[in-house]
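Query protein
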Amino acid sequence: MRKFSIVSPKLFENYPKDFPFPSCLILGYNKKREPVHTVWAYDEINQIAILITVYIPDPEKWINFEKRREI
């Protein structure tokens, strides 16, 4: 398993109706100061956060890595 940390995370998209748990998209930066998107779900009953995916956003698809570009 690879370990990483995100510096200064910022929640910028919220998906409260996702199933089976609400989720959100978070922007952070890795140690190299590269933008990293993480998607998290939250199980309120068990009070745990679940990491769904991690990826480096494509700059052609994002404005400042926070807003989706119109295609």
